[in-house]
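Weekly sync notes, structure subgroup
Attendees: PM, AL, DS (notes)

Item 1: joint prediction request from the bench team. They want all two components modeled as one assembly rather than separately. Inputs as received:
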Amino acid sequence: MRTFVTGAAGFIGSTLVDRLLEDGHEVVGYDNLSTGHGRFLDQARRLAGFRFVSGDTLDLAGLTSAMGGVETVFHLAANADVRFGTERPRQDLEQNTIATWNVLEAMRANGVGRIAFASTGSIYGESSVFPTPEDCPFPVQTSLYGASKVAAEGLISAYVTGFGIQALIFRFVSILGERYTHGHVFDFYSQLRATPADIEILGNGRQRKSYLYVQDCIDAILLAVERTSAPIGIYNLGTDEYCAVDDSLGWICGELGLDPVRRYSGGERGWIGDSPFIFLDCARIQALGWRPTLSIRESVVRTLRYLQANPWLLERRA
Amino acid sequence: MRTFVTGAAGFIGSTLVDRLLEDGHEVVGYDNLSTGHGRFLDQARRLAGFRFVSGDTLDLAGLTSAMGGVETVFHLAANADVRFGTERPRQDLEQNTIATWNVLEAMRANGVGRIAFASTGSIYGESSVFPTPEDCPFPVQTSLYGASKVAAEGLISAYVTGFGIQALIFRFVSILGERYTHGHVFDFYSQLRATPADIEILGNGRQRKSYLYVQDCIDAILLAVERTSAPIGIYNLGTDEYCAVDDSLGWICGELGLDPVRRYSGGERGWIGDSPFIFLDCARIQALGWRPTLSIRESVVRTLRYLQANPWLLERRA
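Output from the run, pasted for the record:
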């Protein structure tokens, strides 16, 4: 199929690009390289089926022009960091909500029939049901990030009814693995690299979160795209387990052979709008035959090893 | 209290303005007069507690400047017509979602601590639970209007967590009564005024909807604002009954002494994204002691009489 990937130079986007190309699909990769890395597309650029377009999802004309002849859009471009909503409250609105509207309008202008969208388990806010299923009680948003993603889901669903497209919506837990560029493993490793003897932890360290390995995430997306015939398919993507922030830090320290003094910022939440417990019910995607191949611990360790092998990612931030 | 009402010249907005002034509050009314009517504010303009600002909710600077010194914002400005989403898909995004973000930012700039927001039962999409409670299963959006309002709710909730404001969110059924300017009673009466012998009905006439009288709606809003101490209060506002489109048409024809030939456009839905059944569980607002004073039938008849007494409203449209 002829595919279009927004956020193509990002962590998950570039991994998806490589998998689509491997499977023989044509891929137009679209990215403004604001948080993505051109290097993540080195492998893709060597293949004839790939074309890169440098562009912003806020540029509707550019997006529309780049999307010509496409059959399926994988919309992964986003402000992907949940933590800074209150510092930059327009960023989530623009990069997640308005950008998604632009993607839908570009699809409509080009007659593109299908979208696969990277949403988030953060839209469940502080759920009262664990593991949280897709049809849990109507949640209240607690972060600008979650609000901007639930808005994007709403727009996509309305376009399904209004314009007859098909939509796959994936509500991710945090994703780990090769090309990982932000999140707690990144932060902990960055700190320990600079000051191996002590570490600062946001919150009380007892926040419980679920994580998923990036290749398992891509497997699930491609399977759902292949198998879903309904106009709209909404799937949680996660593992059947969770861990505490302290557990994950323990695995990282164990791998690095360190025993730092742990200093906690305190409180049940790491930042304003942080959810103290994220654990998704993934029975719906599992019913298609999908299972994750790596545990959370294995994913954390693999992510750490990737960061150790790619110090340029950390140096770029420093 | 010092209040700010967006959409102050609209049907519900102007009715709220009059009630706030009656209760002794100061009111700044903000409206761009695109769908509102200056005449609806004639009564308010005679009172010292009222000030009108002509402005657009898409103008953040104007909104911020107008909101100085305010304690509570009643945000009613919106594209309020659910039917034309697919014809003008940017309208709901701008006037409902982005405008709400602007209202929240203007509040933040001015240190305004409370917002009361006019949301809609349309955000429940095609619910599977009737009557539909506020915490029903996480719905899928079916209209651009519903999507834009669920996005606005998400933003408001995230601002509650992020910036410590208080929010009251009201999910309305269709509102009827004096100053009503659009909707099925308006459409049916307009048609029958022009051609008393026949009438066109969108859908099969069996769509079931709930309605609420505008003064009952305002009673509920003011009561909830007074009684809610939680950071966020979400309330369905409707009656404990519903009627079919055909029932309502029957009451209107009975009042007018007409028996027109009914021509149906057909289908379970009146337009793309129409919900065939809207019936809300209002136990939460009722627990505060509120009850509607008029039945749906009484509200329909009162609305019809208002339109008969105010032909300028129909002539303006024609």
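Discussion: Residues 67 and 312 of chain A are 32 Å apart (CA to CA).
Action: AL to compare against the crosslinking data before next sync.
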